[in-house]
Specification:
Elements lengths: L2 H15 L1 E4 L5 H17 L12 E4 L2 H4 L3 H5 L2 H11 L6 E11 L25 E7 L10 E3 L18 E2 L7 E5 L4 E3 L8 E10 L8 H4 L2 H4 L4 H7 L36 H20 L4
Antiparallel strand pairs: 1-7, 2-3, 3-9, 4-7, 4-9, 5-6, 5-8
Helix pairs in contact: 1-5
Length: about 300
């Protein structure tokens, strides 16, 4: 099956159920190496504080500076094509919303069911604000706290007080990717096993939203300068037309270059329809000015 056909099929599944699980997206050996690399960070990270994050759960972010392999997850071609298809109609560009590692320890209770879109106070039920991808580092099972997802709880159904039907456990093995919409009701399950379950959350959102993880603290210019231009743009070093997120009136990517002037000067960053509107206005103004008698 071609990549475009796979994208179409997975987007259809997301639209129908609010989530999908794609097996064997990356080799298990690749994920195992990443898990081994992040193990010391999990070890030294304290458990979270608060009923939502879970007090028998460890979390940490800034994954792109923890291990260079994370960039392969963030920029996976198939995943990005699915994200662009789902979120593209609602923004000029997508952005990286979060990179977070999660380790749920034995005895942790089920997380409160929630929808990630509720971090923003915009209109719900009409557009999608984000799409999350969970990459298991260890097998996800019903016993060890696999993410619980309520099928069909997304989109306009997110406005309903109670979801129809029961939750399902997103069971899968490392190498798979669990995708779910920001409007889909979900929550980590209880860990009733004797071992911890680990996973990485890579989230993408509309480029005009405030990101969950502050990208300019997580990846300041001296760090983002080491990224590829495409990754730096995804992290946040790119304007969202018109002129949103600019630096000194220019695309913030200028901050990643050398010899940046103190006052570089502003440059328009408009959508084509806005450029046409402004050009038409300017043409009328020039015509009016040339037709006016000189005093």
């Amino acid at each position: 099956m071609s990549t475009s056909a796979i994208v179409e099929a997975r987007v259809a599944e997301l639209n129908e159920k609010g989530f999908c699980i794609i097996p064997s997206v990356l080799p298990r050996a690749f994920i195992s190496a990443l898990d081994t690399s992040l193990a010391p960070v999990f070890e030294r990270t304290p458990c979270s504080r608060g009923n939502f994050y879970g007090e028998s759960t460890k979390r940490f972010g800034r994954l792109l500076v923890r291990d260079r392999r994370v960039a392969s997850l963030v920029q996976h071609r198939l995943i990005l094509e699915i994200v662009e298809t789902v979120l593209g109609p609602f923004c000029d560009r997508i952005q990286l919303n979060v990179t977070q590692a999660i380790e749920i320890h034995p005895g942790e209770l089920a997380q409160a069911p929630h929808r990630d879109q509720d971090m923003w106070a915009g209109e719900k039920g009409r557009i999608e604000y984000l799409l999350n991808v969970i990459w298991p580092l260890t097998p996800f099972t019903h016993e060890n706290g696999a993410t619980m997802i309520w099928p069909g709880s997304h989109g306009r159904h997110a406005l309903e007080e109670e979801p129809h039907g029961d939750a399902v456990a997103a069971e899968c093995v490392p190498g798979a990717a669990i995708l779910f919409l920001g409007s889909t009701l979900h929550g980590a399950g209880p860990n009733c096993s004797t071992g911890a379950r680990r996973g990485l959350v890579i989230g993408y959102s509309l480029g005009w939203l405030k990101a969950y993880e502050n990208p300019y603290l997580a990846y300041p210019p001296q760090v983002a300068r080491t990224f590829s231009p495409e990754l730096a743009a995804l992290v946040g070093y790119r304007q969202h037309r018109p002129n949103l997120g600019n630096f000194e009136g220019q695309c913030p990517s200028v901050a990643l270059g050398n010899n940046l002037p103190d006052t570089p000067g502003a440059i328009d960053a408009l959508r084509p329809d806005q450029e046409a509107m402004v050009a038409a206005h300017l043409a009328r103004e020039r015509a009016s000015a040339s037709a006016s008698p000189v005093p």
